[in-house]
Fold this sequence. Notes:
Elements: E1 34-38, E2 41-47, E3 56-63, E4 68-74, E5 79-93, E6 99-105, E7 109-112, E8 118-133, H1 139-143, E9 145-147, H2 160-169, E10 172-174
Antiparallel strand pairs: 1-2, 1-9, 2-3, 3-8, 4-8, 4-10, 5-6, 5-7, 5-8
Amino acid sequence: xxxxxLRDPSGRPAWDxxxxxxxxxxxxxxxxxxxxxxxxxxxxxxxxxxxxQGQFGVFTSTCPSGDIIPTHSHAGTHExxxxxxxxxxxxxxxxxxxxxxRVLRTxxxxxxxxxxxxxYRVEEAAQLLGVVSGGFERFxxxxxxxxxxxxxxxxxxxxxxxxxxxxxxxxxxxLPGFGWDGV
Length: 183
């Protein structure tokens, strides 16, 4: 995958140099990582595909209550949800068309295999740990606005053409109007 990152005045990606960009041991202190603000969420990239030879990426997201990530799917990306704090309702439709939903609370885990429609809604302000197939972890950076700290940020909503372009780049299918049983 190739990405067009937000750039600083010198033309380098705004978060260039925070992660090693190659497979080597490294450590991050609390609050360190590559930060990007997207919608109302603060995403912190801890490990990218560059460090895992494209295998996977790891990030956290800090999400306000009521935040909704609308229904979508990504054919080549598996996604892990681990709730570090708060509560998140995860919606997923399996290959047979059966819809499932569950509120994940602190310490709960959810997994969505590649290609399945899914969405989530933050029921209580939450912090999530996410693990995804390599490359997809940079979606918040591709669409969001970089920040150099992990503090609260005003919401950032990307222009729709940019959102659609990033979705195409990352093989994300947006599913507007998708209905969830009982919701």
